[in-house]
Amino acid sequence: MSDLQELFDNNLRWAEAIKEEDPQFFEKLSRQQAPEYLWIGCSDSRVPANEIVGLLPGELFVHRNVANVVLHTDINCLSVIQFAVEVLKVKHIMVTGHYGCGGVRAAMKNRQLGLIDCWLRNIRDVYYEHTDELKNLPDEEAQVDRLCELNVIHQVAHVSHTSIVQNAWHRGQSLSIHGFIYGIKDGHLKNLNVTISGQQQLPPQYRVLPLGQ
């Protein structure tokens, strides 16, 4: 227990600091959450979602996994998206990667790592799809960082292809999917300018009709 006591001490200081600034904060927070944003990011401990964008608890709904991947077979991620879109009515889904991502780097290697190889397969497909572009970059670090960007762009597309998102658009719900990337070396968040806000932006083969049609 002694190894963890520091965490509890930190928690007490944090809670007291919040209450000092706003005595009613936790009481208001306990009543409901009404975030406008869903953050789909990497599990990397150096990428704290709320702090990066300066939002308090209750203002950002968060899902994290290794290398911020969105798979159509991942019931966990899809459940988060559905809850965020249909219950919380978020207006923005932000797929946020980060430069120097270890998962992305691993996807570029031929080494066998274990179960995570299955998880990274999607990124490996992105890597081979863009091999010609990546091999013209000056070094491995530049290649990793560009693949981090490309991975975000592909995951934004995956989110927009879900029936969850497209049904929201069919209902007339305001919803946009964005691709961002975070620089661990400078703390800056970069917009990759791949925002999708409606079905008309999707290739025809990925569009789904409303239910019942």
Report what the structure shows.
With 213 residues, the protein is an alpha/beta fold. It is built from 9 helices and 5 strands. It has helices at residues 5-21, 25-31, 49-53, 75-87, 102-107, 116-129, 131-135, 140-161, 163-170, and strands spanning 37-42, 61-65, 92-98, 176-182, 189-191. It has a 5-stranded mixed sheet with strand order 2-1-3-4-5. The chain starts with a helix and ends in a 22-residue tail after the last strand.
**Spans of at least 5 consecutive residues with low confidence:** none
Largest sheet: 5 strands, mixed
Biggest β-sheet: strands ordered side by side in the sheet? 2-1-3-4-5
- Category from helices, strands and their pairing: alpha/beta
Shape: globular
- How widely separated are the two ends? 58 Å
Element-by-element helix/strand order: HHEHEHEHHHHHEE
Q: Could you give the topology of this structure?
A:
Elements: H1 5-21, H2 25-31, E1 37-42, H3 49-53, E2 61-65, H4 75-87, E3 92-98, H5 102-107, H6 116-129, H7 131-135, H8 140-161, H9 163-170, E4 176-182, E5 189-191
Parallel strand pairs: 1-2, 1-3, 3-4
Antiparallel strand pairs: 4-5
